[in-house]
């Protein structure tokens, strides 16, 4: 049986300092150990997909000294289903590797609870289907160097995650003596500032107008902008294709945890997440993770047109959601609810985030809206070079 200390210290020597995940009893020794080390960081994610996206943001960020960023996403195999989207359309598409620790509940021949009866037998097949190389989690310290070296070699060569499938009893218990809090106290919830005009819904700004305003008040050397999938990323590309822009494709809802991982790992960057109402509703728990993590360099703009516009304009339920109030309750430092693009410049000038703004927009986009001519890999490469990270080949 392995000690948590042995594994964590072996991964630390290989550059892993960031952990994100959703707990499983098998993972408790790691979480307890990491929480008690001020040089390591564990982020409690709202779901397993958020943990994968956050670790991808750590990879994107690098280590702050030009080297690769290395994160570990931990989850029970029952939560592997929650992580399928970012594993297949974020980490795979952009070449953002990470180490996965997936506990093998319901392993054939090992008695477990009924909810694991199906996922247990199919877990290896799921990893194979997603083209994620894997092996069993080591149970002896002597196995660690070879296992971790294989994982790193594969991650570097393929640009994809590598999974360690943890069986019951692989790691000895670790007591939690004095842990850093999972949340950051920020005092009372932020006041919500509502700045609405008398404009009718059809007179609200378009998303493209809002993105032009964002581009006009951000500079390549001072900030990075990560745009949600669909028309948001395509319109940002059409407004201005810059090296400090990242256009997400797929992995709907993951722009916030991806940007959060980047912001936490690189406090020297001003990180701006450009979100949509449908995407935000899909992963609303990410707002709580942002509030608890409290990155001072994080700006979160939600462009709300109450529609899934890129798929045909089907309505979302955003009209019934007070997003700014939710963000305030989650711990954002300031929260703005507006329908005026003129407010964005002042909002961007705020200090010490995280800051949230919902901008009410109307539907409508250019009929000839282009798709990016740069591939996701090219976007990742130039983005990482721009922020001073050695790009993996």
Task: Give an account of the 3D structure.
With 393 residues, the chain is an alpha/beta fold. It folds into two domains: 4-166, Rossmann fold; 192-386, Rossmann fold, CATH 3.40.50. Helix content is 35%, strand content 18%. It is built from 15 helices and 15 strands. The strands form three sheets. Strands 7-14-15-11-10-8-9 form a seven-stranded parallel beta sheet, sandwiched between helices. It has a six-stranded parallel beta sheet with strand order 2-1-3-4-6-5, with helices on both faces. α8 packs across α9. It is globular and about 65 Å long. The two termini are 36 Å apart. The mean pLDDT is 93.
SSE diagram, text form:
Blueprint: H1 4-12, E1 18-21, H2 28-35, E2 41-44, H3 48-61, E3 71-76, H4 84-89, H5 91-94, E4 99-103, H6 119-129, E5 133-136, H7 144-158, E6 162-166, E7 192-195, H8 207-216, E8 223-227, H9 231-239, E9 245-247, H10 255-265, E10 270-276, H11 277-282, H12 285-293, E11 298-304, E12 307-308, E13 314-315, H13 323-330, E14 334-338, H14 344-348, E15 355-360, H15 376-386
Parallel strand pairs: 1-2, 1-3, 3-4, 4-6, 5-6, 7-14, 8-9, 8-10, 10-11, 11-15, 14-15
Antiparallel strand pairs: 12-13
């Amino acid at each position: 049986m392995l000690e948590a200390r042995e594994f964590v210290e072996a991964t630390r020597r290989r550059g892993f300092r960031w952990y994100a995940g959703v707990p499983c009893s098998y993972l408790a020794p790691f979480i307890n150990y990491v929480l008690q080390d001020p040089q390591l960081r564990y982020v409690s994610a709202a779901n397993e997909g958020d943990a994968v996206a956050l670790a991808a943001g750590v990879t994107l960020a690098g280590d702050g000294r030009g080297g690769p960023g290395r994160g570990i996403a931990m989850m029970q195999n029952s939560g592997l289903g929650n992580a399928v989207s970012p594993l297949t359309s974020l980490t795979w598409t952009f070449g953002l590797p990470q180490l996965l620790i997936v506990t093998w509940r319901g392993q054939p021949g090992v008695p477990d609870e009924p909810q694991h009866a199906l996922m247990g037998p199919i877990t290896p097949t799921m990893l194979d289907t997603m083209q994620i190389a894997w092996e069993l989690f080591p149970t002896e310290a002597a196995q660690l160097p070879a296992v971790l070296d294989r994982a790193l070699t594969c991650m570097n060569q393929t640009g994809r995650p590598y999974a360690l499938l943890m069986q019951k009893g692989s790691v000895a218990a670790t007591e939690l003596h004095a842990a850093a809090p999972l949340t950051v106290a920020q005092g009372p919830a932020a006041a919500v500032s509502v700045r609405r005009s008398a404009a009718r819904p059809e007179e609200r700004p378009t998303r493209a107008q809002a993105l032009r305003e964002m581009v006009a008040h951000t500079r390549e050397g001072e900030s990075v902008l990560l745009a949600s999938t669909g028309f948001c990323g395509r319109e940002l590309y059409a407004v201005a294709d810059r090296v400090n822009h990242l256009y997400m494709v797929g992995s709907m809802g993951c722009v916030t945890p991806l940007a959060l991982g980047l912001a936490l790992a690189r406090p020297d960057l001003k990180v701006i997440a450009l979100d949509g109402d449908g995407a935000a509703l899909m992963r609303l728990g990410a707002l709580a993770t942002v509030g608890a993590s409290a990155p001072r360099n994080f700006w979160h703009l939600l462009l709300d047109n109450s529609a899934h516009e890129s798929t045909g304009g089907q309505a979302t339920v955003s009209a019934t959601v007070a997003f700014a109030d939710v963000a305030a309750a989650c711990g954002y430092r300031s929260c703005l609810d507006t329908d005026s693009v003129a407010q964005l410049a002042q909002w961007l000038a705020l200090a010490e985030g995280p800051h949230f703004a919902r901008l009410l927009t109307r539907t409508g986009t250019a009929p000839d809206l282009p798709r990016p001519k740069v591939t996701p890999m090219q976007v990742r490469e130039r983005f990482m070079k721009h922020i001073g990270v050695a790009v993996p080949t």
